[in-house]
Amino acid sequence: MRITYCCADTAPEPWLEGLRAALPGAEVSLWQAGAPAADYAVVWAPPQQFFDEQPQLKALFNIGAGVDALLKLRLPVGAQIVRLDDAGMSVQMAEYVCHAVIRHFREFDGYESDMHNGKWSFRKPRSRIDYPVGVLGLGVLGERVAKAVAQFDFPVNGWSRTPKAVAGVQCFAGHDQLDAFLQASRVLVCLLPLTAETRDILNLKHLSLLRSGGYVINVARGAHLVDDDLLTLLDSDHLAGATLDVFRNEPLPPIHPFWKHPKITLTPHTSARTLRSESIAQIAGKIAALQLGEAVAGLVDVGRGY
Ligand code: NAP
Ligand code: GLV
Q1: What is the mean pLDDT of residues 140-166?
Q2: Which of 53, 181, 192, 209 has an alpha carbon 20 to 30 Å from 147's alpha carbon atom?
Q3: Which of these, 294, 291, 286, 292, lies nearest to 81 by C-alpha position?
Q4: Catalytic residue among 106, 221, 248, 256
Q5: Domain 2-87+275-291 maps to which CATH number in 3.90.1480.10, 3.40.50.150, 3.40.50.720, 3.30.1130.10?
């Protein structure tokens, strides 16, 4: 069995060594133009040439949860596309979102700036009932996040494409229930995949439906958010702030107004990182299962876009 590795922005050697150790019978190599045909591929943002030269692939493993960049390419017909299925990401995402929600709710950002200015002053406690948190996307990451936020006794709403039941979460589904979901939420967390249906979903119309003093946390993809609409609603005070981990162009260009906006907190696409050991173990397990003709979790439905 031959496995080829083609991942942008990632040091290849530790991945190659890890895959060789996890699959001792396999020939694992770094892809280069003209490389021999492989059975399986481990990829992140490969060039089109990679797939053009490897039309026989049985399956390709994306070393991330989101496949929006991959699905822009012409993929080998018949290859199964497998995304990372948690592999240590959901706990990171839960930490990040809980931190952002609590930092805003408890006004820790305000206390930080008071302390820097030598100011000793208490803020009035807020009521959780006034801060319902809405999670867009109740998949592998969204469900974990919704449950983690609910552990802090916030009312939690969730929205998915198909109906779901999640303990402690009021679930909404489909386009018809989107407005009701937004109207019931004050803090909005985006954990949707980027598809034709979800691009630009964080727009003026939808964000205006959040309760006044709303707060936006985007940890999915930058193209979910219409940047100018967010700025309009922050400047009109309909929204109190935003924590953004993802951007239309990454790295965020130095002249972008988000950098210096007093109500925006930024991080550099780091809310849930790919963890090498966990990912290699998961991919190796799935390759072994596919070799035995068994089904694996995390298959991407190309028509659906995630
Ligand atoms: P997932 O398991 O595929 O879950 C996606 C969720 O979104 C599902 O609940 C799905 O509904 C829902 N959804 C999809 N299209 C929808 C639509 N048109 N209307 C309503 N709901 C819709 O994905 P995941 O593993 O949770 O990851 C979500 C995204 O997070 C990834 O695609 C990626 O872009 C992003 N991400 C970001 C980082 C980071 O570091 N910032 C890290 C990892 C992932 P159903 O349940 O009905 O299918
Ligand atoms: C990161 O953004 C991922 O999709 O895993």
Answers
A1: 98
A2: 209
A3: 286
A4: 221
A5: 3.40.50.720
